[in-house]
Write a structure and sequence with these properties.
With 290 residues, the chain is α/β, with parallel strands linked by helices. 51% of the residues lie in helices and 11% in strands. The chain has two domains: 2-153, P-loop containing nucleotide triphosphate hydrolases (Rossmann fold); 163-289, Up-down Bundle (Zinc Finger, Delta Prime, domain 3). It has helices spanning 2-9, 23-38, 53-59, 80-89, 112-123, 143-147, 163-179, 181-194, 199-223, 246-264, 269-282, and strands at residues 15-19, 66-69, 100-104, 129-135, 150-153, 240-243, 286-289. α5 (112-123) links the parallel β3 and β4.
Amino acid sequence: MKLIGRLADGQLAHAYILSGSSMEVLETAALHLAQRVNCLETDPDKRPCGQCSACRRLQQGLCGDWFRLEPQGASRTLRIEQIRQLQTDIAGRPAEGRMKVALLQEAHRMNEQSQNCLLKTLEEPPENTLLLLLTDKPQGLLPTILSRCQRLTFQGAQILPPTEDFELAAQAVDTIRRTGYEGVFDMAAFVDQSRKKRLSYFFSALEIMLRDGMLHSLSREVLQGAPGPLEDLLLTPAGMRLEGSSEACRRGLEVLWETAYWLERNVSSALLLENLFMEVWKLDINYRKT
């Protein structure tokens, strides 16, 4: 949990998306962060101590500043009524500790109405409040939610897609860049036919490549051409990289998140891929084999 420690000791964001394949790992990380920011131990290096009243009450789920939402009903949905009640609960000052902490389990199970309701809180968060959205399907969250939260993926909780999906993502971007408008539709049809049952892997690979392209560009834009510490965060398999400005890659991510969101809601995959590749074609993003 070293990453959690660095976050708690530094400048915390008001909201985080904790993503990975293991909800147990994510819940453990969320509790650890909640304890660390509220621990009564005076020595920061010893937080969370696990022994003070704040740590114990959080562990037992008894803390008045700890709010945990779970999906309800046969449909396993986080309902808008739950979000509205949470907004009431986190208003005002913490009752016991330094911060109020709200955990949304399986956050992707919010429908569009619930997510738009939560968006109001993300745009104007109450002071001394930390929101933690846990999900193993971040593609089920609206792009507006994703863009307003810091995203953390924990080692051991993330399973990278197969190399062949990275290769297909690279082929798609390269083909679109070389062939232009007509290539958009041909590539969309090819990906739809070849990955019909596993488009989520393809989207994950493309997301990682766009994210890495953004980090690569930011590292050079901020440090004026010199390699920087952001390079250590790259996940794309060696030899494959998407290149473009950080703004172009960021916009590509937003379009991809929106595409994945609607795919989860059974919109035609062929149409979604055409729209995705059309938007990528408009952006100055290129594939480079290194």
